[in-house]
Automatic annotation (TrEMBL), chains A, B:
GO terms for biological process: thiamine biosynthetic process; thiamine diphosphate biosynthetic process. This is Thiamine-monophosphate kinase. Catalyzes the ATP-dependent phosphorylation of thiamine-monophosphate (TMP) to form thiamine-pyrophosphate (TPP), the active form of vitamin B1. Mg(2+) 2 binds at residues 53, 82. The gene is thiL. Mg(2+) 3 binds at residues 36, 82, 219. It comes from the Bacteria.
Length: 329, 329
């Protein structure tokens, strides 16, 4: 039987095919997808949050590193993660996809399965989108809207001198997973590859951190070195990190040892972990540390300031964004 | 002097270059672009509206038919038009652009000039976006958010038997302008080409129509034949249109005569006019017809129903979406 392609059904046929199971939080919906715009209602006393994120075939993924299901899941998760980084919950998602006409329809079906799975898990309404042709390759753009109590969004610019710098979960797993996939070792390291292919947005932790009084928050999309530099610059503070404290999973350490690499390179320069890093007062940190997987990795030492300094093996060095080249031992 | 390209400055250099003059409605802004998400606040008693629209080089525009300024203006306008079609005002806009590395930076600058011009005119905040590479061609995705008084969004599904069907402004100008551009006649028909290159979203008319009690509303993005069929299907009604009444500009008639074409083909099958069409009760129509450029073109004749019927030269025919093949005379 001939495999059906995108061109065989056209734009409107494709839309009919994918338009089901879009609403996972009906109480917020006023007008669903299919009209010129979707309409939703958030409760009084909330601010609106918005962010957009794109995945390009050949740049953010290849058919070797991600299945179509993974691409859909990852696209939703990377967008929702930006809501987590503001202490917000995700509410709605719209999608624009540019597809080559010779793409198998089954690819699109599995992509939507992944997208839907992530939307269902985090109770986010799929509010519509746009389907266009692409002259080459897949380009997938998601835009997420969220809500956060008025005036309570956690920015990256609120870090205060004396704050604890924290990281949730572990860092570097996604980059290590990508390394394994690209070196044909993916099957041996499933706990790492899943972190790259199907990352989880830390929305519940973002909300807990907001309620606990976190002063600054970023999601780890571009590697810890860049996230910390963004917080330092936006907040006008100097950060001091003890690299030995950066939380690394057993699997990251094991793969690094096997391939003779420094696991911190993945954590600091890698990105796409979609865990959270930020700052909070020491007393608030003590209150929440038992409630969630969170590790203290340093301190906000100076305001005004702008730099990130890291300690390792008794040496103190300036850490630039994606500038980690591991110290001499 | 060597022309600077996107690759010469990279993603973060590009972002620094374009991050200015983003906020045209500061009273709604809480956290501006540059953080993980932007935060905005709409007044109590409003619903949120969202829509997304993409332009792909080679499909929606070419360097022959649109300048970079035009592409920016058109992208914003086509998104804002979806808010007009809901009777909403546009509030915020986020943008995702996938650019080939060999694109001149001056292209990006002029593109943002056009985008900003449209945002400034309609007082829409640019709330951020995402910049990625593209393996080939430009892909530009905008997402707009808007607001409309609670429960007052005008959908395409509310048409009622006995309603007047109306069209604002004139239809077919954009398609005629594209025809002129593609046939090297653009300079002769500036009133048409501007409608293709820099369309205006009819936000003020959409709001007036909502307040006047319009029952159904669509923007003319895909040609009148498709818009009417969408209204008929979504509302479960039968529409009857008098084609002689479809408002055509003098320029559309003149160009059609010159090139021996039926000007209605542009109005019915063309699209991208971004005027509005919809239905309203006869008494409400009489009240508003002096306040705005609006033309009655037919009636909602039957509920339940699903089809669109057109009269021309005394004949009645079913009009399918993009199915206008002009009648025998």
């Amino acid at each position: 039987m001939k495999q059906l392609l995108v061109d065989d059904v056209g734009e409107f046929g494709l839309i009919r095919r994918i338009m089901h199971d879009f609403i996972f939080r009906p109480e917020l919906l006023v007008v669903g997808p299919g009209d010129d715009g979707a309409v939703y209602r958030t409760p009084g006393g909330y601010d609106q949050v918005i962010s957009t994120d794109t995945m390009v075939e050949g740049i953010h993924f290849t058919r070797k590193t991600m299945s179509p299901f993974d691409v859909g899941y990852h696209l939703a998760a990377s967008n929702f993660s930006d809501m987590a980084a503001m202490g917000a919950e995700a509410v709605g998602f719209v999608l624009s996809i540019a597809l080559p006409g010779d793409l198998p329809l089954s690819w699109v079906d599995r992509f939507y399965d992944g997208l839907r799975a992530c939307c269902r898990k985090y109770r986010v309404n799929l509010l519509g989108g746009d389907v266009t042709g692409s002259t080459k390759g897949l380009i997938l753009t998601g835009t997420v809207t969220g809500m956060v109590p008025e005036g309570k969004a956690v920015t990256r610019s609120g870090a205060r001198q004396g704050d604890i710098i924290f990281v949730t979960g572990t860092a570097g797993d996604s980059a290590a997973g990508l390394y394994a996939l690209l070196h044909d070792m993916g099957e041996e390291w499933p706990s790492l590859t899943v972190r790259h292919q199907r990352p989880e947005p830390q929305i519940p932790l973002g909300i807990l951190l907001r309620k606990a009084g976190a002063h600054a928050l970023n999601d780890i999309s571009d590697g810890l070195s860049r996230e910390w530099n963004e917080i330092a610059k936006a907040s006008g503070v100097e950060l001091e990190i003890e690299l030995e404290k950066v939380p690394l999973s057993e699997a990251v350490r094991a793969l690094a040892e096997r391939v003779h690499r420094d696991p911190l390179t993945w954590a600091l320069n890698g990105g796409e972990d979609y865990q959270l890093t930020g700052t909070i007062s020491p007393s608030d940190f003590d209150t929440i540390k038992k409630e969630m997987p969170i590790t203290p990795v340093g301190r906000v030492v100076k305001k005004p300031g702008t730099g990130v300094y890291v300690w390792r093996h008794g040496q103190r060095r300036l850490l630039q964004a994606k500038g980690f080249d591991h110290f001499e031992k």
